[in-house]
Design goal:
Elements: E1 11-15, H1 21-30, H2 34-41, E2 48-52, E3 55-65, E4 71-81, E5 84-89, H3 97-101, H4 108-143, H5 147-177, H6 190-253, H7 268-289, H8 297-304
Parallel strand pairs: 1-5
Antiparallel strand pairs: 2-3, 3-4, 4-5
Length: 305
């Protein structure tokens, strides 16, 4: 895509070490602002676009997955002039290679569009992978709500927030580019930038939906844990209630007092045992009849929820 008026050959300088003195030489050559050069050399810069005299300074984030399964945001800074382009990055940026091979056919603003478009496209598989992880978390919450699941939900939520912050900032850059005054951004790029903006809007809508799904998974986890705790408490209470008749009967015969002579009969032990078992079985039958025991319809409805 070559626009009219691209008579001069574009000079593209790719700096892979922000501390390189070449960046200082280019700053002097193209009158780059010292604060922009300093931003290139500092970590954790926010995604932004700043309009300076004779060029645009843009800071983007290329987000990739680390081996531990965490997101890592690599910074890519661009100085876009009318006849020059300076890219500064620490980590390798593979999406620049095919563009550098065709640099003689593109203007700086066209290269900028291609870079932003490819960066936005790289966000799509990240959003898909996050959605897959959320589906797995939903299954784990339903089947086995362990404490580790709660930690995974928190990590997924933090990842969603980080990605959403980067996408919102990138969308703001695209809106700014569509209204940049002067000749740095050709108006023929406006439809292409709008298309990238629409792609970002779709990804952000999916992230909002994923956030709601995570909130639902968290509520389901807390409800499942509460139900399990209530079921355990209920079971222990019923077991204590079932054992209560035997404890009462045996405690009566275990007091340190004088009992009638018939109490000392050899058959009394069997009688006390039978009475205790009979009362306990009657109590269990009564609890079962009232549907208080685990495994009844009340318990089944609780587990289904």
């Amino acid at each position: 895509m070559v626009g009219a008026g691209a008579d001069a050959k574009m000079q593209w300088h790719d700096i892979q070490d922000p501390g390189d003195k070449t960046l200082d030489e280019l700053a002097a050559r193209y009158s780059l602002h010292p604060l922009h050069v300093e931003d290139c050399r500092q970590n954790a810069q926010r995604t932004k676009l700043e309009i300076s005299e004779g060029y645009l300074f843009i800071s983007l984030k290329q987000v990739i997955w680390n081996d531990p399964g965490e997101l890592r945001a690599d910074e890519l800074a661009l100085f876009v002039g009318s006849d020059f382009l300076v890219t500064v990055h620490r980590a390798p940026v593979t999406l620049l290679e095919p563009l550098r091979n065709s640099r003689e056919e593109l203007r700086p603003d066209e290269v900028l569009y291609q870079v932003i478009d490819r960066v936005v496209e790289s966000y799509i598989p990240l959003a898909d992978r996050l959605e897959t992880n959320i589906e797995r978390l939903e299954d784990e919450v339903v089947n086995a709500p362990r404490p580790a699941v709660l930690a995974n939900i928190g990590e997924a939520r933090a990842t969603l927030l980080d990605l959403r912050r980067i996408l919102n900032a990138t969308r703001h850059i695209i809106v700014q580019l569509r209204h940049v005054p002067g000749p740095l951004i050709n108006q023929e790029l406006s439809p292409f930038l709008r298309d990238v903006h629409d792609d970002l809007a779709i990804i952000l809508d999916n992230i909002v939906a994923d956030r709601d799904r995570l909130a639902g998974a968290l509520d389901l986890y807390m409800s499942s844990v509460a139900n399990r705790n209530a079921e355990a408490t209920k079971t222990l209470t019923l077991l204590g209630t079932a054992a209560l008749p035997g404890l009462v009967i045996t405690s009566i015969f275990g007091m340190n007092i004088d009992y009638p002579s018939w109490v000392k009969s050899h058959s009394m032990f069997a009688i006390v045992t039978i009475i205790s078992l009979a009362v306990t079985l009657f109590l269990l039958w009564y609890l079962r009849r009232k549907d208080y025991l685990p495994g009844g319809t009340t318990s089944g409805r609780t587990n289904d929820r």
